[in-house]
């Protein structure tokens, strides 16, 4: 299915159907990540319940340390 991920059209594998699976796919499941879908910030407790639909606009913002 095609979504817009961080501003770029992206084809996701069929196995990805919710936000938890998306974060695992990108190896972000253990990081602090803000997830926004279609302009709405999704609470971490709802990631598994929030399905991903074709055409969704998803923003993933994670923090990187450094100095």
Verbal overview:
- With 67 residues, this protein is mainly β.
- The protein has a single domain, classed as Beta-grasp domain (Ubiquitin-like (UB roll), Roll), CATH 3.10.20.30.
- The protein has 1 helix and 5 strands, in the order ββαβββ.
- The chain has one helix at 19-25, and strands spanning 2-5, 8-11, 33-37, 40-42, 57-62.
- The chain has a 5-stranded mixed β-sheet with strand order 2-1-5-3-4, with no helix packed on it.
- β3 and β4 form a beta hairpin.
- The longest helix is centred in the N-terminal third of the chain and has 7 residues, at 19-25.
- It is globular and about 35 Å long.
Describe the structure concisely.
This protein is mostly beta strands. It has one helix and five strands.
Derived from helix and strand composition plus strand pairing, the structural class reads mainly beta
| Portion in helices | 10-25%
Q: Compute the separation of the termini in Å.
A: 38 Å
Low-pLDDT runs of 5+ residues are: none
Look at the structure and name the CATH superfamily: Beta-grasp domain
Largest sheet: 5 strands, mixed
Q: Report the β-strand fraction as a percent range.
A: 25-35%
CATH topology: Ubiquitin-like (UB roll)
Series of secondary-structure elements, N-terminal to C-terminal: EEHEEE
The top level CATH class name = Alpha Beta
Q: Number of helical runs? A: 1
Number of strands: 5
- Tell me the domain tally: 1
Query: What's the architecture in CATH terms?
Result: Roll
Rg, alpha carbons: 12 Å
Q: In which order are the strands of the major sheet placed?
A: 2-1-5-3-4
Question: What is the overall silhouette?
Answer: globular
Give the overall average pLDDT.
Answer: 95
Organism: Evansella alkalicola
InterPro entries: Beta-grasp_dom_sf (IPR012675), Mopterin_synth/thiamin_S_b (IPR016155), Thi_S (IPR010035), ThiS/MoaD-like (IPR003749)
Protein name: Sulfur carrier protein ThiS
Pfam families: ThiS (PF02597)
């Amino acid at each position: 299915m095609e979504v817009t991920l961080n501003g770029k059209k992206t084809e996701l594998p069929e196995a990805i159907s919710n936000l938890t699976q998306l974060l695992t796919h990108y190896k972000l499941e253990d990081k602090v990540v803000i997830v926004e879908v279609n302009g709405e910030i999704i609470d971490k407790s709802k990631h598994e319940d929030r399905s991903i639909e074709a055409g969704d606009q998803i923003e993933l913002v994670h923090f990187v340390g450094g100095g």
